[in-house]
Write a structure and sequence with these properties.
With 149 residues, the chain is of the alpha+beta class. 38% of the residues lie in helices and 38% in strands. It has one domain: Nuclear Transport Factor 2, Chain: A (Roll).
Length: 149
């Protein structure tokens, strides 16, 4: 995978998030994608779960915008192997808090996103985000659901 391929996938991901297009995100994710959240110790796994999570995230964040990017190679969390990667820096608001964060995308050999890690600061924003996302997942799943916590 070339740097241009990484940039292309990252650009398509950014465009899908900007337009809140879950169908476009679906095309970019591997079936076994792993999503590492700042509010949950274990990853969300599999395309259906990650797409559901993105649906909630896209409704939860306000004034979301990417402000920069970097490409390179980084070890994956799943097995520690080096993978082509991109880092997208963002700003947003959730739960009344200003959020600064990064999205770390790892790509497979076909250029699809196989691992996604989100890092957010400050801690008060992480807590507000966690509460908002959990509430969104529970509301979507219906009464009695634990929403993957």
């Amino acid at each position: 995978m070339t740097t241009a391929d990484r940039s292309s996938t990252a650009d398509r991901f950014r465009a899908a998030v900007d337009s809140r297009d879950l169908a476009a995100l679906d095309d970019l994710f591997t079936e076994d994608i792993r999503f590492y959240s700042p509010v949950k110790f274990t990853p969300f796994e599999g395309k259906p779960m990650v797409l559901r999570l993105f649906g909630v995230l896209l409704r939860t964040f306000h004034d979301f915008r990417y402000i920069g990017d970097h490409t390179g190679t980084a070890q994956t969390s799943a097995d520690g192997t080096p993978a082509p990667s991109a880092v997208l820096l963002f700003r947003a608001r959730a739960g009344g808090k200003e959020i600064h964060g990064i999205d770390l995308l790892h790509f497979d050999e076909d250029g699809r996103i196989k691992e996604f890690t989100v890092m957010v600061r400050p801690q008060s924003a992480v807590l507000a985000l966690g509460e908002a996302v959990h509430a969104g997942l529970v509301a979507e799943a219906g009464p009695g659901a634990d929403a993957g916590r």
